[in-house]
Amino acid sequence: MKLENNLVDWVVLQRRYLHTHPELSHRETETKAYIAEQLHALGIETYSVTGKDIIGIIKGDHPGKTVIIRSDMDALPILEETNLPFASVNKGVMHACGHDGHMSILLGISKLLVDNKASIHGTVHLLFQHAEEEVPGGAVELVEANLLKSKDAIFGYHLWQPLKSGLIGIRNGATMAGVDRFSIHIYGKGGHGSMPEETIDPTLVIAHIITQLHTIVSRSIKAIDQAVISIGELNSGTSYNIIPDTAFASGTVRYFDKDTSLLIRKRIEEIIDGACKSFGATFKLDYVHGDPPVLNNKELTSFIQKTAISLFGEDRIIEIDPILGSEDFSYYSHEIPASFTFIGVGKEEIPFGHHHPKFDIDEDMLPVGVELFTTGVLNYLKGGTTDED
Ligand code: NI
């Protein structure tokens, strides 16, 4: 399905409008209203499951399965520095992850699908999800509110700066990491720096703990099971000659398999407990299991891969390595067959990654997303062939 020039222009304009008017997670009120307005103008009925999301629904002329195509809607608390003529007018809020582009792609898909109802064998739900960037985010709320009931499959995508523009990145199985976070409070006994024998030095305790935490990946996790543990925050003390009462550290865990996450949590607890016992300190550990890994369904993903190859040619479709970032699309992927695709938007002229104040996308890839998922969903509903009608 080739896109008419005026549809391409419309999609780009939608992206620019949405880029100018970003909103933070769980507060996407105007965005939601705007999307609803656009969908209604196309003659598409909408509903909302949580009150924060907005979902368009298109029933095809033929009976069949029910699928969801998902975009996210939220922006980030970042002061934009792109100098684009359509830069954010909401100071300190910016679409710095590409979710503006995701919405414009889904609007383009909506427009094409509604014009091609006669070719739809089943029903398509166009999901504009709130709060992807926050934990807990929109996806888990939607799953808990039963969005996925009687749905056969869900498709998602991300415009992806690390991937060169023009390419489409696909992967089966665990594709994006699960993410946990933890914080450690150590309680010692403060005193004068000149008399450490009178104290229990929490700084020394936490130093031992951090060093040992870095043995978990190398000594407790099987080499083929990837994981990352990083400490991002460390606080203790107020002056050079005072031993403080407490110390604090927090960190992040990334993994691709739930058992790895459980093992890491157990090892973190054992290490902290052991170190504290040996020094006479006590502790509090807060460990939060965040988004699980994104699991791409094999059949659905190879179907998208075949569709992409037939549309854009084999040399533009690549198998990507697992990504250590997280994405709350993962919650859907643990419930029903799901597939998440990466659309390359990286260009040498824009070397700024996601969440950077100068982040920008290659708009030429917006129609690629529209074409891929419109054709993909139409063919999937027809029974999984990649032939034209
Ligand atoms: Ni994102």
Characteristics of this structure?
single chain, 389 residues, alpha/beta, Aminopeptidase, Alpha-Beta Plaits, 2 domains, eight-stranded mixed β-sheet, four-stranded antiparallel β-sheet, 9 helices, 33% helix, elongated, binds nickel (II) ion
Count of all domains = 2
State the fourth-level CATH superfamily of the largest domain.
Zn peptidases
CA-CA gap between termini: 11 Å
Shape: elongated
Q: Averaged pLDDT, please? A: 96
Q: What does the largest sheet look like?
A: 8 strands, mixed
Rg, Cα atoms, Å: 24 Å
Bound molecules: nickel (II) ion
- Strand arrangement in the largest pleated sheet: 1-2-4-3-5-16-6-15
Write down the secondary-structure element order. Answer: HHEEEHEHEEEEEHEEEHEEHEHEH
CATH class of the largest domain: Alpha Beta
Runs with pLDDT <50, length 5+?
none
Helix content: 25-40%
Going by helix content, strand content and strand pairing, the class is alpha/beta
- Counted by DSSP, the helix tally is 9
Assess the beta-strand content as a share of residues: 25-35%
Strand element count: 16
Question: What is the CATH architecture annotation of the largest domain?
Answer: 3-Layer(aba) Sandwich
What's the CATH topology label of the largest domain?
Answer: Aminopeptidase
Give the helices and strands, then pairings.
Elements: H1 5-20, H2 29-41, E1 45-47, E2 54-59, E3 62-72, H3 99-115, E4 121-129, H4 138-144, E5 153-164, E6 168-170, E7 173-176, E8 178-187, E9 191-192, H5 202-220, E10 227-236, E11 242-243, E12 246-255, H6 258-279, E13 282-289, E14 294-296, H7 298-312, E15 317-319, H8 330-333, E16 338-346, H9 366-381
Parallel strand pairs: 3-4, 3-5, 5-16, 6-15
Antiparallel strand pairs: 1-2, 2-4, 6-16, 7-14, 8-12, 8-13, 9-11, 10-12
